[in-house]
Specification:
By secondary structure, the protein is mainly alpha-helical. The protein has one domain. 76% of the residues lie in helices and 0% in strands. It is built from 9 helices and no strands. Helix 5 runs antiparallel to helix 7 and helix 5 packs parallel to helix 8. The radius of gyration is 18 Å and the shape is globular.
Length: 190
């Protein structure tokens, strides 16, 4: 199967996820900067989630750029990733509106962990379909950064019950790790 429909569908879903997140931002009924103060946690959680969705979109694009074709397993693995990404707006809103309380921060981390697991599954299914000697397999390699991200998420979730701030700092750390675009696939295709 060709990959164009998968890419177009995924791009559309990710665009809707971002739209849902921005629609969750409530406009204050006060016309001063002081009126924005209660919204700071909501805005911070939105920015963090926007960055994460952007990172997933960017890496998903690169992953599929290296893919030549898709099959049914890949379609389902992609839907699995989109499912977890689609829950990010809920986690974002709950965490921001409750000022980074322990349970919402832990749930948010659980969602990030599941997104990471789903992305790993998608990449492994793509590699299995294209073969261990494919450009995709060579580019992904051991995926040290991906594995490290999963470990950090897994540690941050229970840590949220002790210190939500430390868990949020770990989420930011993972985002910083991924903000620099992963050039492995681009280099492999060049």
């Amino acid at each position: 199967m060709h990959k164009a429909r998968l890419e177009a569908f995924s791009d559309g879903v990710i665009a809707i996820i971002i739209t849902i997140m921005v629609l969750e931002l409530k406009v204050p009924h006060v016309t001063t900067f002081e009126g924005l103060r209660p919204l700071v946690p909501v805005l911070l959680s939105y920015v963090l989630s926007f960055v994460f969705i952007g990172i997933y979109w960017n890496n998903h694009h690169h992953l599929l750029q290296a893919a030549q074709r898709v099959n049914g397993s890949i379609l389902w693995a992609n839907l699995h990733l989109l499912f977890w990404l689609s829950l990010i707006p809920f986690g974002t809103a709950w965490m921001g509106e409750n000022r980074f309380a322990a349970v919402p921060v832990a749930l948010y981390g659980g969602l990030l962990l599941m997104c990471g697991v789903a992305y790993t599954i998608l990449s492994r299914v793509l590699i299995a379909h294209h073969g261990p000697t494919s450009a995709l397999a060579q580019a992904v390699g051991k995926d040290t950064k991906g594995r490290a991200s999963l470990v950090i998420y897994a540690a941050a979730v229970p840590l949220a019950f002790l210190s939500p701030g430390v868990s949020c700092a770990l989420y930011v750390l993972v985002a910083i790790l991924w903000l620099i675009p992963d050039r492995r696939i681009e280099k492999s295709l060049a």
